Amino acid sequence: MTQTITVIRGDGIGPEIMDATLHVLDAMQLGLQYEQADAGLAALEKHGELIPQATMDSIRKNRIALKSPLTTPVGEGFRSINVELRKRFDLYANVRPAKSFPNTKSRFPGGVDLITVRENTEGAYIGEGQELSADGETALLTQKVTRRGSERIVRYAFELARKTGRKKVTVVHKANILKSTSGLFLKTARAVAEEYPDIQCDEMIVDACCMKLVMYPESFDIIVTTNLFGDIISDLCAGLVGGLGLAPGANIGSEAAIFEAVHGTAPDIAGQGKANPCALLLGAAQMLDHLGLPDKATALREAIIATLEAQDSLTPDLGGTGDTMSFARAIASRI
Ligand code: NAD
């Protein structure tokens, strides 16, 4: 196989975790070609813009990108680069697995293995209708939910369940209060669910879902929900399995798919070799699934698990004395 992917090394710890990730992918001899592209602060310094046209062209051409975290400068009128990428490529599905791994700081050392599928383009995050009255006393926000947007995200969740052999999809909503927006999402989800009689579907109000996630996280399989709820729930789930160091995310659309670590640029540890590369590596595993290489994705995940079990060269956030690259070498040696 020869597949070219766009590689964005990003800011802060981004270049370190990307080097580590590419080291492991190279060891797997997948025949991947990398096209380096700039974004974030690195791009602003080099090209005078946060997302140069060449980067957009590269993603559009290759349709697959592996991306390290990016810094969006604060308070200088810049829009979030990640939101911009989602908009430009209509990356409507944000897919965030949360799985218990050995030897991590998790309150649930075993049993959590769920995926949050979050609608990524609608809801409260459309950036429209945000107003503060002239006297600063009243703020307004517009939310948008469409049948088309709801249908495609719920369908994505059910198709993912079928593809990965998962048994249940939980539709999370607040239709009892947000009758129009959440109501439309729920109604649409019910109609889609009927097309998948082989997959169990249940419904849960978002607040009850949060409580149940903390008490019985092992009872969940796939969660599908709207943008704001999905944003919060997916971080809650990352917390269940020991934090952001092991949380990957995929942003999937019809034109492109971007795979990443959920955490940020970690400026406090940048350049020190302390960054845990696992989240981006797990993002790369999602990319291999997406490329139709599930066996390779599984091999990568198993090598990560074996390295964690052996506590071989782990980074300081996992209580180890290794560094980013020694951790990556330990993983690569187990593939
Ligand atoms: P952060 O995730 O960068 O850091 C939070 C804490 O987690 C820090 O203590 C950091 O050291 C630690 N941490 C994060 N990743 C780690 C890793 N791989 N290994 C070990 N420790 C790790 O969150 P923040 O400090 O709120 O954000 C910093 C910057 O990142 C901001 O500029 C923000 O805009 C950006 N950001 C980018 C993305 C993205 O591009 N996807 C996502 C979130 C934040």
TrEMBL record:
<protein>
    <submittedName>
        <fullName>Isocitrate dehydrogenase</fullName>
        <ecNumber>1.1.1.41</ecNumber>
    </submittedName>
</protein>
<keyword id="KW-0560">Oxidoreductase</keyword>
<dbReference type="GO" id="GO:0006102">
    <property type="term" value="P:isocitrate metabolic process"/>
</dbReference>
<dbReference type="GO" id="GO:0051287">
    <property type="term" value="F:NAD binding"/>
</dbReference>
<feature type="domain" description="Isopropylmalate dehydrogenase-like">
    <location>
        <begin position="4"/>
        <end position="331"/>
    </location>
</feature>
<dbReference type="InterPro" id="IPR024084">
    <property type="entry name" value="IsoPropMal-DH-like_dom"/>
</dbReference>
<comment type="similarity">
    <text>Belongs to the isocitrate and isopropylmalate dehydrogenases family.</text>
</comment>
<dbReference type="InterPro" id="IPR019818">
    <property type="entry name" value="IsoCit/isopropylmalate_DH_CS"/>
</dbReference>
<dbReference type="GO" id="GO:0006099">
    <property type="term" value="P:tricarboxylic acid cycle"/>
</dbReference>
<dbReference type="GO" id="GO:0000287">
    <property type="term" value="F:magnesium ion binding"/>
</dbReference>
<dbReference type="Pfam" id="PF00180">
    <property type="entry name" value="Iso_dh"/>
</dbReference>
<dbReference type="GO" id="GO:0004449">
    <property type="term" value="F:isocitrate dehydrogenase (NAD+) activity"/>
</dbReference>
